[in-house]
């Protein structure tokens, strides 16, 4: 009698395992690799109002599509092979912004160099990877046009719900502490 019970458990376990494997194989992510269609990049000069320190930050976004949906986009790598620079954006660092039904931009507003160094000119590879490990790659040529000189920074004043800018500025972007625009 005990061997018959063991045999039933064995057969039941095999059936359950077969069902689980079937579900994983046929309902998982399909073979839709991400596709990068456009790249937007901009170097920005930031000033920490508390310390007065200035540093550069790279804003880099790619317009991407993935047949499995934008939620399948997991990781972005930014690589400068010549200078041996490497950034990996994933989780909350990888911002996914949807505009309408067909436009998805993936990237980050605040990519920094270590030790407040400036971004070197050159070729930067951008690799976008989805949940299945499929990827697309493109490249941009970055030219650092920020001139190393003293900057006269504008100030932002608030009076109730009104804000005013004192000083000259081409444009002012305001970010939350977590990098949200």
Major beta-sheet overview: 4 strands, antiparallel
Beta content:
35-45%
Give the neighbour order of strands across the main sheet: 1-2-6-5
- The backbone outline, from C-alpha atoms, is elongated
Let me know the number of strands: 10
- Distance between the first and last residues' Cα: 69 Å
Uncertain ranges: none
Structural class: mainly beta
> Helicity range of the residues?
10-25%
Rg measurement, Å: 24 Å
Q: What is the overall pLDDT average?
A: 81
Count helical runs: 1
Order of secondary-structure elements: HEEEEEEEEEE
Provide structural commentary:
The protein has one helix at residues 2-27; strands at 35-47, 54-65, 73-80, 85-90, 95-99, 103-112, 122-130, 135-142, 155-159, 162-166. The chain has 181 residues and is mainly beta. It has a four-stranded antiparallel sheet, with no helix packed on it. A hairpin with a 4-residue loop joins strand 7 (122-130) and strand 8 (135-142). The mean pLDDT is 81.
Provide tags for this entry.
181 residues, mainly beta, four-stranded antiparallel sheet, 10 strands, 45% strand, elongated
Blueprint (SSEs and pairs):
Layout (H helix, E strand, L loop, with lengths): L1 H26 L7 E13 L6 E12 L7 E8 L4 E6 L4 E5 L3 E10 L9 E9 L4 E8 L12 E5 L2 E5 L15
Antiparallel strand pairs: 1-2, 2-6, 3-4, 3-7, 5-6, 7-8, 9-10
Question: Summed up, what is this model?
Answer:
This protein is mainly beta. Helix content is 14%, strand content 45%. The longest helix has 26 residues, at 2-27.
């Amino acid at each position: 009698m005990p061997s018959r019970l063991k045999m039933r458990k064995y057969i039941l376990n095999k059936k359950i395992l077969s069902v689980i494997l079937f579900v994983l194989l046929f309902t998982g992510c399909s073979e839709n690799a991400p596709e990068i269609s456009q790249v937007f990049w901009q170097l920005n000069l930031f000033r920490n109002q508390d310390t007065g320190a200035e540093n550069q930050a790279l804003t880099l976004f790619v317009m991407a599509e993935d047949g499995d949906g934008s939620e399948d986009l997991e990781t972005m790598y930014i690589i400068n092979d010549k200078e041996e620079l490497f950034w990996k954006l994933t989780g909350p660092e990888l911002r996914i912004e949807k505009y309408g039904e067909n436009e998805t931009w993936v990237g980050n507003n605040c990519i920094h160099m270590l030790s407040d160094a400036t971004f070197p000119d050159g070729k930067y590879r951008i690799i976008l990877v989805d949940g299945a490990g499929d990827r697309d790659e493109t490249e941009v040529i970055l030219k650092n046009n920020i001139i190393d000189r003293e900057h006269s920074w504008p100030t932002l004043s608030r009076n109730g719900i009104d804000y005013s800018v004192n000083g000259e500025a081409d444009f002012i972007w305001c970010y939350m502490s977590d990098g949200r625009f």
